[in-house]
Amino acid sequence: MELKLLHHYTTITCKTLAIADDVSENIWRDTVPNLAFSGASFLADALLAVSALHLRSHTPHDQDLVRASHAYMAATLSEYGTSLSNGITETNAEALFLTASLIAFQSTASRIFTRDDSGDLKDRSDGYVLPLSWFHSFQGVKAVVASSWQWLRNSGIVIPIIEAQPALNLNLAEHENTFFGDLLVGLDEELAQSGEDESPGYLLTRQAYQHAVAVLNWAHKIPQTGAPLVFLATVSRRFIELLESRRPRALAILASYFALLKCLDSLWWLRGVARREVMGIVSLFDPDDEEWWPRLQWPLRIVLYEGDTIPSDVWGADWNDQHALLQQANRNGGFVTHIELLSKMFSAMQNTTSSALRDPLDVASHAEAVLQDRALQASANMMALSESLHVPQVD
């Protein structure tokens, strides 16, 4: 079984882990297995687990593959957790980053075997479960990056993978005139009515919504580059808390996010996800809700569209503009450049903030607040990546 899974990984699965990037595809195919079978057993187990899940997507009822996928991932999580507890070092940083990435893939792909979609808006129930594990696993990747950047920044393995991600180019200064601006309408009034405008967390809540919508607006313009996947790792811890509380605004934002994944439906680990998740989220709303039901119409229209290519007038943006928009964003530096800038700011704030902000997450949140107070584009871009330096607590 192990040889079968390894062969499948190196010949097929590895090609599905990189979106339109030959360099990172070669790394996943050649370099990662070499590193895995040179002593990083948790990485070896992770790639075998993902390979087994990929094969299972073709034969869902093959119990040998079901057991293999679960067993290899269980072994991965056990060894991975132990390695993190022992500390990230120069010698294990690359393997831990790659393992965290494969765990995120596994978490995402496992969802395709869940049948939450009733397919009927009239058949509403409380059975739908939000895929919060997606956020936790992708946030785990950024936690490893934040904790080991001093070594990863010089890695010939990790840097090409990070640079393959489209550079964030967010606009936090404008909200109402953006495509998803209606998701922020009434935010201040909502916070005032709930009394949150007088609470210490008011700013973080407001920023969590604004930042999430800014990422949606950015990814909406370049969806086929894999940009929508960045949302999972870059949203703040506060936004995830709002999702856990099932706040209507957070759920509506999440529905729009999953609709963006419709353009990546050809990937085996995202196949059917857009429709299933949007329909599930919509089932949590009352169709008579005059405030939120109209804001769910775009994600519904997208996931129910039957054609292979969604027209620009339905999508709301012209996909032919993606290349030009990417070039424009890359003029400000790639993903690595932005992480470098925020890493320096993050370190400085850890050294200068009060004892009340000694926790890494609180320091990063403070950095976020400082950056969001600036309306300039450069500040917006930096704030977006300060979220990439949040280190979630380990339960």
TrEMBL record:
Q: Which InterPro entries match?
A: Fun_TF, Zn2-C6_fungal_TF
Pfam families, A to Z: Fungal_trans_2 (PF11951)
Protein name per UniProt = Putative c6 zinc finger protein
Which organism is this entry from? Eutypa lata (strain UCR-EL1)
Q: Which GO terms describe its molecular function?
A: DNA-binding transcription factor activity, RNA polymerase II-specific
Which keywords annotate this record? Nucleus
Coiled coil segments of this chain: none
